Amino acid sequence: MNINIKVYLHAKETNFYQYGSFSVVNSHFKKEPDWTAAIAAYEWIQQIKINFAASEDFRIDQVVYNDDNDITDLVKKVRPNKTSPSHLEKGLLLILND
To answer: What is the pLDDT along the chain (98 residues), one digit of tens a residue?
Structure first.
């Protein structure tokens, strides 16, 4: 299944917007749609940070999936699970740190 994600970010004193469609595991999405979308968005944001050599002022301003589901706060809580590889196809491999 695919979801559409919009991210509004800030880096190098500039606000910018990215939009993309991402594949997620259907059973995970049905069980926890917001959390599944947050993990996909988090992984994409990490790629954006690497590709654009994010600066110290990098921040996530807003993350929305499927047009109107704001998951900004969830994405900011996602952390990598250090004991598992980071592949969405193998399941929810990122954990939430409170």
So the answer is: 999 999 999 988 889 999 999 999 999 999 999 999 999 999 999 999 888 777 888 999 999 999 999 999 999 999 877 655 444 433 333 433 33
Handedness of CA 21, 24, 26, 32 (dihedral sign): negative
**CA dist., res. 88 & res. 78, Å (int):** 13
What is the pTM for the complete model shown?
A: 0.80
Cα 21 to Cα 4, 13, 24, 67, 92, distances in angstroms: 4, 27, 10, 12, 18
Which residue from 86, 38, 93 is spatially nearest to 60, judged by alpha carbons?
38
95 φ/ψ angles, rounded to the nearest 5 degrees: -115, 160
